[in-house]
Amino acid sequence: MIKHHPTDELLKVFVDGELPASLSAAISIHTDMCPICQNKVAQLTEFQASHSFEPAHGQLFNVSDGIDHDEEASIDFDSMIDAITNDTTIAIPSLSIDKKIKIHDTTYTLPRAIQNIAMGGFTKLGKLSRARFKLDEGAIHTSLLHIQPGGGVPEHTHKGYELTLLLNGEFSDDMGEYVPGDFIMLDAKHTHNPTSQKGCLCFTVANAASHFTQGINRLLNPIGTFIY
Q: Measured between alpha carbons, how far is 41 from 8 in angstroms, rounded to an integer?
């Protein structure tokens, strides 16, 4: 069962349309997988919609608003809708076909929210493979991160924030075990060493390089941008 979710504040900003594309995609993926957050987003969307069409406080609509209400009442909306839907010049988008990727010997279906985002090829370092999404968001880097069975990321902390959304498989760290759909947001207050016994695929978003903290792994800090 999914145990890690976006905060209510983050969900509200998502519904308001104020998140960068990377984080917006992550929440879209999570809500597709999580009935709890799906319900929250639906409620927030309904609340926003109901307030968007209300008149400003103290303002009332009346016949002096410049609208000819007799003319408005005479409009045949059914005929108008029929004319629009029967217009052969309007292109009707085709249903998207699930996009699949193969990493090593495993084939994955990409979540709907990221199927149409351009992505570079995979770069490999040990049992880690990473492909970057081409979102042009400056310091924010968005990737697919694949960990082969028995692999992991050396103990590290974060100079900024790091979001990991588990798409497939499993991994664990000092804070617990994670299942597909878990939305894990960490920052400089957290240090962890994620490992995966069976392998996993994650959607990651970070705005600064990881900083390795333990023993000889600190020598990896010059290549901390591989994961970031």
A: 9
